[in-house]
Amino acid sequence: MRMKKLAAGVALGLGASMLSFGALAADTIKVGVLHSLSGTMAISETTLKDTMLMLIDEQNKKGGLLGKQLEAVVVDPASNWPLFAEKARELIEKDKVSAVFGCWTSVSRKSVLPVFEELNSILFYPVQYEGEESSKNVFYTGAAPNQQAVPAVDYLKNELGVERWVLAGTDYVYPRTTNKILEAYLKSMGVAEADIMINYTPFGHSDWQSIVSDIKKFGSEGKKTAVVSTINGDANVPFYKELGAQGVSADQIPVVAFSVGEEELAGIDTTPLVGHLAAWNYFMSVDSEQNDEFIESWHKFIKNEDRVTNDPMEAHYIGFNMWIEAVKKAGTTDPSAVQDALIGVAVPNLTGGYATMMPNHHIAKPVLIGEIQDDGQFAVVSSTPGTVVGDAWSDYLEGSKDIVSDWRAPLSCGNYNVKTGKCSGQNF
Amino acid sequence: MTVRTFGALCLLSLLLLLAPLHAMAAGEEEVYSQAAELLMSRGFDEKGQAIRLLAENDHPQTQLILTLLMDSRLYYNKDDDRLYRIDDYDTDKPAIEIASGDRVVIEKKRDFKKITLNNQLRSQVRQIRAEMGLKSPDLSRRLAAVRAMLGGMDSDTLALVRKAYAEEKNSEIREVMQVAIAIGELPEADEARARDAIDTLAGSLEPDARNALTQFAAATDNQALKSAAEKALTSIEQRANFYGGIETLYFGLSLGSVLVLAGIGLAITFGVMGVINMAHGELIMLGAYTTYVIQQLMPSHIGLSLIVAIPCAFLVSALVGIAIERGVIRFLYGRPLETLLATFGISLVLQQTVRSIFSPLNRSVATPEWMSGLIQINPVLSLTTSRLYIILFCLMVFFALLLVLKRTSLGLQVRAVSQNRAMARAMGVRSEWVDALTFGLGSGVAGVAGVALSQLTNVGPNLGQAYIIDSFMVVVFGGVGNLWGTLVAGLSLGVANKVLEPWAGAVLAKILVLVFIILFIQKRPRGLFPQRGRAAEG
User: Fold this and answer.
1) Domain A24-143+289-365 carries which CATH code?
2) 0.90 exceeded by the pTM?
3) Residue A110 class from Cβ within 10 Å (0-12 exposed, 13-18 middle, 19+ buried)?
């Protein structure tokens, strides 16, 4: 009898403590971090995971959100696109996260898109991309083509007098679509077909000898030539090494890259690359108070003075602060309420201005062109006077120049054709 | 006249006498301080003005300042607004002031700001230095200067080159100068001179000569000259295509040598023991990581670290290979499917071990000085030195392996066991030891391949995955167990890939090569050079 009572008492006690454990666990708001920590994209995405951990840690020190602490749930989709979708589902269904910050390549975003739309969660996508998409569940804090690709081509054409173009990219949706837009844009400005050379390589391509030799030949016909590079991931390292080895210097044939930032340059000797360009909306070398503070807290958090900051990190900074503001405005983490509350939210960016969430789920960003220096940093050589609003549907492609995206009521449509007055795609 | 007035007059006359001297120095100083002020401003237009100012006035410090600007070694001090030269920003070397030559200790790095250029300014500086370089006593500088001017020949540069040509003694430079003069003269020349110019340009492979001929052919009304220019262009194109073919061959050989290095170890293990080793790529990866570790241990001797890494990588991979053989494969002889699965599992284990010990991110391996650079054969053909070393290295490894197999007793035993195991055992060969050592040899060679690959591609946990398929392709195509077969197969696959790449693209070229091998295997299942012998296994 006594043993039975003792056993019952122990069981009750354990049960009570488990309940209180459960109650304690329920007192956090979970935030999902969906970035590749291994594989070909790890070079770019690992630092974004660390940035999210820092932002969540700082917010918790300020008291958390809605009275609760934030908890980061980190998963590793390993540069494997179908695994991205699986991990996204795991984060939303199993871990019950309130929002996810993640993805880099457009193919990873396209893989997770159906998951987010089916389970109605929120994804903050921090990387420049090709446009041609607008989802109720995704907030694009990275640059659309009109905030990066097109201004970069304008800079090359107007400031450097470039007349021949090499569009080199990795073989997947982002470079293919961006090159379609750029080809249409160049042709609309009178560039002949013979003056455009387009080339695609697989992820992780490491033998660039013939391609760099072809670029040299293409560029030695007397007209100023430039390379517009949408090469992603660690294939950039052997590409730049081969450019240096074959003696292609930046003032002969400049290369402007859209996916190479301070992080990708961190592991290589940039002396042969001095003068090559990148187009972003933020550089670590930008002189502003917010940027100095951000870099300082980043170095303190990561305990390493040599770690760099880059544009996608700023995008997560903006996106995370916007999400915090929206949740406070809505008073809840419920995705539908937050999606509505996000539109119109304005937070400071790191270049001394403000970023506002527009009805098409894009933000307004300044466009900066920078030249690589020999210490892996960028020196800004050109910048737009104000911010440029992101346009999801490119004005240079037949199929999308009549389409706008507006997620406010009553339109609530991502693919609204202004000519026909019809809404297509994800219809809310 | 009082003493005072006389004294004043003397002073005045003295000042007047000294004024012209002072004015000369003041002129130079004024140019310098104007230029310095412009250089310290933020805008690139102002910096361009400063460069032109220095060049036009032929200031004595122009050469130095332009060199420092191009090398990013020109700084200015925010406190005293002077230009400084800083060679090494990180050590305790002093900063040297340009005007006076004073050395100043760098107390706070933030006091000095680098003066940066953009691409346009860099081209301008290059052009200016080229013009100044024409007068340089150094041969290579003069040659480089003339080459740099070929693209921008106008009446001023033409006059400069003509003047320099009159004084030039070196035949190589005279040749390039003749091309430069021909390019400059061609647009405006009369018929006779134009024909001479076209003949000169026809003999040159410089891309600027070609462009000049193309532009002339398009612009001229004289039909005879037009056809002469077009004929010259055709002959240049033929020669350029020939050299282009040699370049493609070179690229193909260098890609092929990488394939041979990756596959030769597999040829031995697959050939001798018939073991399908899916962990072969990871053994290559271990060799690459060994190079990284050795470089971390010897950071100031990059070149030496590479040489030291070769035997170390061989040992590391060989030991891991022997461990795999003794620990797992030994029990699975005669069961190819299980061997395949087991070695695949081992490859995953090795990948994750490396991820856990180092990090999932790529590691950067530096290339030594003597391996970077270009060998310029002629204006259309240049060979990268790193690839040349890789080709030579591959041949060295191949011949070393051949030596081991043909001249040593271990080699004899390996060949005996691979041809007829039962008979070899009957002759007293300890086949288990031979198996283990063969596997070790094959794995060691894979490690050595990793050292070479670390110079060409990213060193990361997934390095092996990129090369395992290629290694099997080479071995299957070349004939299992035959070293010469591997060499021929690897080199020919590399050349085929590079020949197809320009018109099919990188992805399609690989696909086509794979399809070709599949079709080839249908006709000759045992590869190019199959093993002979009555009991040789297929």
Assistant:
1) 3.40.50.2300
2) no
3) middle
